[in-house]
Design brief:
Layout: E1 2-7, H1 11-21, E2 27-32, H2 35-44, E3 49-54, H3 58-72, E4 79-83, H4 87-94, E5 99-104, H5 109-123, H6 125-156
Parallel strand pairs: 1-2, 1-3, 3-4, 4-5
């Protein structure tokens, strides 16, 4: 079972998060309404993913600072951002903090669950193995392509006679 920590101050959204994620047998969701609650939850539970609300104002900045503090403390829980802000703005603000993706707040609850499941899979041992296999395959294709270019250049290069 995967455990996620969802940091969100809005009570209506936290209720929806509980409703939709509690339908999933393979995901345990914990909701924190602020970074203090999130820090306390992290001390008690190992989380596979943080979903961090990034919004305008102090709370949004606190969420980003919280992820930054975790990274500085050596706590590397994969994180994604949940926001109404533009992707470019959020990614610029969280650059260097290793956030996996951005979930727009206007996404349907089913799509949110799906995106979270995708991120959980990518960070899982099996997902990492598959990504590594794909990278190895890409390296092999690159080597074969380079060899073909060398062969093409050697057979098609005009010979200069003196």
């Amino acid at each position: 079972m995967s455990a996620i920590l969802f940091i969100e101050a809005n009570a209506e959204i936290t209720e929806l998060v509980h409703t939709y994620f509690n339908k999933e047998d393979d995901i345990q969701v914990t909701v924190a309404t602020n970074v203090q609650e999130a820090r306390a939850a992290i001390k008690q539970t190992f989380f596979d993913l943080l979903v961090v609300d990034v919004m305008d104002g102090a709370t949004g900045d606190q969420s980003i600072e919280f992820v930054k503090e975790l990274r500085m403390e050596g706590i590397w829980i994969p994180a994604c951002c949940y926001t109404t802000r533009s992707k470019e703005d959020v990614l610029e603000r969280v650059s260097g903090y290793n956030c996996l993706d951005l979930i727009p707040k206007d996404v349907s609850p089913d799509d949110m669950v799906s995106k979270v499941k995708d991120m959980l899979y990518i960070t899982s041992e099996q997902g990492q193995k598959e990504l590594s296999d794909v990278a190895d395959l890409a390296d092999e294709i690159h080597k074969q392509f380079d060899n073909l270019l060398v062969q093409m250049n050697s057979c098609c290069t005009p010979q200069i006679q003196s």
